[in-house]
Amino acid sequence: MRVLSLELTGFRNLLNTAFLPGQGVNVIAGDNAQGKTNLLEALWLFSGLRSFRAARDADYVAFGGESARLGLSFFAGGREQTASISLMPPQKKVALNEIPLERRGSLSGSFAAVVFSPDHLELVKQGPGSRRRLIDSSLCQAYPKYGAVVLGYEKILRQRRAVLSDIPKNPGLIDMLEVWDKGLTEYGGYITFMRERYINRLSAYARDAYSGIASGSEEISLIYRAGAGETKGLTERGEYISLVKDAVKSARAQDLRLGRTTAGPHLDDIEILVNGKAARAFGSQGQQRSCVLAIKLAECRILEEGAGEPPVILLDDVMSELDEGRRGYLLNHLTGRQVFITCCDPGQLAGLKGGRVFMMKSGELAQLAT
For residue 70, what pLDDT is reported? Predict the structure, then answer.
């Protein structure tokens, strides 16, 4: 899978941009606040997922403007395809190969991408919520139907919490918990099943990627901690459903006391270790960044296995905090994939042995001679 061209009109500070990237590594250099991240964000929106900057549709329209249009030409599934997103908030129009789609999420599965941004360092530094969101986002690309299950689980979780909070005032509502608990365990068991399978694969691939990034001097491992209890020895989906069912049943008294659900995948976590130590507590800035990169490259391999072709890789401000060896790996060893990398310091490109370099200044993009 690769981008052939990207055309933007009125998108953030990219008022009239035509981008023709190369098939390999594409570096977009320039000072801060010039539009580099905006360019990667525009590409990411065609994955059908939310912006990695948590933006609203109105945020995409240039200051003082009324509308924005994004047009993408890409090669996927053995043929050239097109996609477009037209924004005139609150209205939005999306099309794939000139066929209108109901929503941008319908693009998911057509154009696949993996993105790294500095905010993704929360995966290591912050609490478990950021890790659950990243894993769910990855699973939604690999298995588009998974997102509907997560939304269903979150809805039941909210409804169950409302019942739990009302029971002290109306004890008769306790019988309603049985209704919500059935859906909670069905959805929750599926989510736990999918997450553990995915993280086991992700850990193996992340280990390979991290070894390359760190030149074999360090090792990463990912350990799944299920919020429903110990999953060791479980293999079948039904077993995971039973696990969640038993956990929810055992936590009933505590749930009634606290007014919330205290067992289930909404409490899952992923432990990230470097050389057997928690990266969050003991990892350096460079190691933490390398952990996230390795996880993202592992995600890329899983998507490639599912689609039969590699997704596009978007790396925003990835070079800072990395030593020369790790930068060289990113610039020259992601062969067979189309990669987009942004950076501020052109000196960080000293090890680049091929690819294309573009300069971004005040929303204007120009290719440099290499």
Answer: 97
Joined together, the tokens standing for residue 335 give 């062969």
Assigned token pair, 52: 């990695």
Six token digits for residue 106: 């319908």
Q: Nearest 5 degrees, angle CA 116-CA 346-CA 30?
A: 70
Residue 183 amino acid letter: G
Which residue ranges in the chain fall short of pLDDT 70? 54, 350-351, 370
Q: Is the dihedral of CA 111, 116, 118, 120 positive or negative?
A: positive
Longest dimension (CA), the chain: 74
Residues 6+ apart with CB under 8 A from 236: none
DSSP-derived letter for residue 233 is: T
Distance, C-alpha 106 to centroid of its chain? 17
Mean pLDDT of the chain: 91
Do the Cβ atoms of 353 and 332 come closer than 8 Å?
Answer: yes
What is the percent of the chain with per-residue pLDDT over 70, rounded to a whole number?
Answer: 99
3-state SS class at 80: strand
Q: Token match 């990398």: residue?
A: 341
- pLDDT tens, 241-288? 999 999 999 999 999 999 999 999 999 999 999 999 999 999 888 899
